[in-house]
Design goal:
By secondary structure, the protein is α/β, with parallel strands linked by helices. α5 packs across α6 and α7 crosses α8. The longest helix is centred in the first third of the chain and has 28 residues. The protein is globular, with a radius of gyration of 18 Å.
C-alpha cells in the first residue's frame, strides 16, 4: 500500500509523515490480523493522508474526512480535527448533559486515529457482502462490525468501554431530541445531516453489533449468523430477521 500526502505546507507534510512512520508497523500488523481472521484478501492500493480541506472538499465533497473506495483510502491524521468533529455532535444539547462527553473527546489519543484507519481497512474484508440490491437495508451491520473490530484492536480496554458509554449517552440524547427510527433506514439520509445525525447511525450500529456479539459469544459467531441470513431470500431485512430468530432483543 503506497502512502501519498495531500497537504498545504512543509510542516504539515512532516507531521503526517511522522505519524505514518510512527504507526506503520501497527497498521501492517492489523492488516495481517484481518488476513488471518477476517478474510482480508486485498488492501487499498493507496493510503492518502490528507488535510481536512483536501479530504472533504478537493477529493470529495463529504462531511467526514475518512473513507475508502475500490482503490484508495483517505484519512485526516490530526487529533484536533477529529476532536472538533466529535465535539460538534454536542452543539444541540444542553451543556450539563455533555460535560463527561466533552472531557472524553478532549482526551483522545492517537489510538483513535489508528482506529479510524482500521475502520476503513476492515471494510475490505471479504466477509461482507455488497452485491445485493437491498444492500442499503443492512449496511448498518457492516458499519457496526468494522467499528467494533477496529475499536477492539486499536483501543485499550478502558478506551473501548469509555467509547461505548459515550455512544450510549449520545444515542439517548439524540433520540430524546429528535425521536427514533429503524437502522433499516441507515444510508437514506445518513450522509446529508449534521454531525450528530451522521454519527447517531454509526454509534447505534456499533452498539447493536456489540449486543449481538455479547448474545452469540464471538465475532465469528455473529458473522456465521449474518451469512445464514445472506442465504435466505431476504424477504425480511437482516435486522428484523435477527430479532425474529432470537439473536437480538431489539435495535438501539
Amino acid at each position: 500500500m503506497e502512502v501519498h500526502y495531500l497537504v498545504t505546507g512543509e510542516e504539515e507534510l512532516k507531521n503526517y509523515q511522522k505519524f505514518f512512520q510512527k504507526h506503520q508497523l501497527k497498521l501492517e500488523n492489523f492488516q495481517a490480523f484481518l488476513r488471518k481472521h477476517y478474510a482480508l484478501e486485498e488492501s487499498p492500493q493507496i493510503l492518502l493522508l490528507s488535510n481536512l480541506v483536501g479530504a472533504t472538499f478537493i477529493i470529495r465533497d463529504i462531511t467526514i474526512p475518512a473513507y475508502t473506495n475500490d482503490m484508495r483510502m483517505v484519512m485526516t491524521p490530526e487529533k484536533d480535527v477529529w476532536k472538533t468533529i466529535y465535539l460538534a455532535q454536542l452543539d444541540d444539547y444542553p451543556n450539563d448533559d455533555t460535560i463527561a462527553i466533552k472531557e472524553y473527546y478532549n482526551r483522545l489519543s492517537e489510538n483513535h486515529l489508528l482506529q479510524i484507519i482500521g475502520h476503513e481497512l476492515t471494510h475490505w474484508s471479504e466477509l461482507f457482502e455488497d452485491d445485493f440490491d437491498d444492500y442499503d437495508s443492512f449496511i448498518w451491520f457492516e458499519e457496526g462490525m468494522v467499528e467494533y473490530l477496529s475499536r477492539k484492536y486499536f483501543l485499550t480496554e478502558m478506551e473501548f468501554q469509555a467509547e461505548k458509554e459515550c455512544n450510549r449517552t449520545l444515542v439517548s440524547l439524540f433520540q430524546a431530541k429528535y425521536g427514533w427510527h429503524s437502522l433499516n433506514d441507515f444510508g437514506k439520509e445518513t450522509y446529508d445531516g449534521n454531525y450528530a445525525s451522521i454519527f447517531y447511525e454509526y454509534w447505534r450500529s456499533f452498539l447493536t453489533v456489540d449486543q449481538l456479539i455479547s448474545n452469540l459469544g464471538s465475532e465469528k459467531e455473529v458473522f456465521s449468523v449474518y451469512h445464514q441470513w445472506l442465504e435466505t431470500n431476504h424477504s425480511k431485512p437482516l435486522l428484523d430477521w435477527l430479532i425474529e430468530n432470537g439473536f437480538l432483543e431489539k435495535e438501539f
